[in-house]
Specification:
Layout: E1 2-8, E2 11-17, H1 19-25, E3 31-33, H2 36-49, H3 73-84, H4 89-94, H5 97-100, H6 106-118, H7 126-129, H8 135-146, H9 164-173, H10 176-187, H11 196-199, H12 205-222
Antiparallel strand pairs: 1-2, 1-3
Helix pairs in contact: 3-6, 6-8, 8-9
């Protein structure tokens, strides 16, 4: 059963309401549920109907975050699918991606990653997705990048999460300017997961010389 809290004189009472009545009152009143399962089912329906609901769409109006740990993979996949298909941008905006990501499986994260790389309105979420993506998903992203797709992303953001074979793929197709910038970042202490031995065949002599001098200076400081 679903109840709404009603203030009567000097006390607050529970008044039974129907499921549909509850949907119309989301964001306007507080609810009480007989069971956790009923509560979960109710807010799941709120998520599905949010674009059509007459309630005010603000994330603080819904007890969404408390529900996330209890949602099944297929329920979370429904949310991801609505994002991928562009069914309801308001649903996406209502959920903080940082709160959602820990509960998604890698397949769904990979889907969102590819979407964020290919569609401008999701690009701002790209970096948030990287730590949760699978190595296979990141590898597919690199494959698309070296084919000339997803050129709007900053490839430097990806290096810390890539395996060595995928880094090699990028080296083979990177411009001399891009590789030179990579050397700059490496000498600043970034991208330390990169095996520089893999990079040398693709570098110009001036950049190899810079790395050589960098290693000499570093060794001297350690002595």
């Amino acid at each position: 059963m679903i109840y709404k809290y009603v203030k009567k004189e000097d006390c607050i009472e529970l008044e039974e309401i129907s499921f549909d009545e509850g949907l119309e009152l989301v964001g306007k009143v507080d609810f009480h549920f007989d069971s956790e399962i009923e509560c979960l089912n109710f807010y799941k329906e709120v998520l599905k109907r949010n674009s059509k609901s007459k309630c005010k769409k603000r994330k603080e109006d819904f007890e969404i975050y408390a529900m996330l740990p209890y949602l099944k993979d297929e329920d979370l996949h429904e949310i991801v699918s609505s994002i991928i298909d562009g069914e309801s941008e308001s649903l996406y905006q209502m959920i903080d991606l940082n709160e959602l990501l820990p509960y998604l499986n890698e397949e769904d994260v990979d889907l969102l990653l590819m979407k964020s790389a290919s569609e401008n309105h999701l690009t701002s979420y790209f970096n948030e997705l990287l730590p949760f993506a699978s190595s296979e998903g990141l590898s597919r992203l690199v494959d698309e990048y070296v084919k000339g797709n997803f050129q709007s992303i900053n490839i430097n953001d990806i290096y810390p999460y890539l395996e060595s074979q995928d880094i090699k793929k990028i080296f083979q197709f990177a411009s001399s300017e891009g590789l030179s910038r990579l050397v700059d970042e490496y000498m600043k202490g970034n991208f330390q997961n990169i095996n520089m031995n893999d990079l040398y065949p693709y570098l110009e002599s001036k950049d190899i010389k810079r790395i050589f001098q960098y290693y000499l200076s570093k060794k001297k400081m350690e002595e």
